[in-house]
Prior knowledge:
Number of helices: 3
Low-confidence stretches: none
Number of strands: 4
Strand order of the largest sheet: 1-2-3-4
Shape: globular
Strand content: 15-25%
Mean pLDDT: 87
Largest sheet: 4 strands, antiparallel
Oligomer: single chain
Amino acid sequence: MEITKNSHRNTWQAVHETTLAIREGRLDPALTDWLSRQGVRVETALFASVRQCDQRLYMGTLVDEKGRVLEYLANLDLPEDDALDDVTAELGPKCSYHHRHDPCDPVTMALMIQRGQAPALAAQPA
Length: 126
């Protein structure tokens, strides 16, 4: 699929950069390790967003290889505060198959990439 709008390309680029930063451990290697310990296949997951809320406290959204959308809260110092929740059933318009989906939304774009509706991360969008 070709991405023709600049806004969609910008969203694709944001998902691409976030995904690479987490996969390569450039954001925080401890976060990458935490995700792996939670059963996330970091090498195939697409990371729609991640926010550093505090030192060693992150929250974000990812799409796994099965197309599930998972929200996470990773407290790298207090593991009892951690959470990884499957929110796929609550997506509504974020789902790329929804009639009102918006490719400018990073979760929607990550789903589009995962489902082959947008260029894979190995390729740059046209």
